[in-house]
Sequence to fold (54 residues):
Amino acid sequence: MDDARKDQLGGKLKEAEGKLTGDELREGQGKAEHAKGDAKEKLEDVKDEVRERI
Fold:
């Protein structure tokens, strides 16, 4: 599993945990970690696109 997917999955788990326990801070941390994973994935897509064009 790549780093981006780990962040996305970990973020979703933390977000769900926060929702279940009513912990808004934990839920927010999960959302931020998931967004970080999304950003990493998009960056990798851009890198791949650049490599293809070179």
Remarks:
- The CA atoms of residues 10 and 53 lie 33 Å apart.
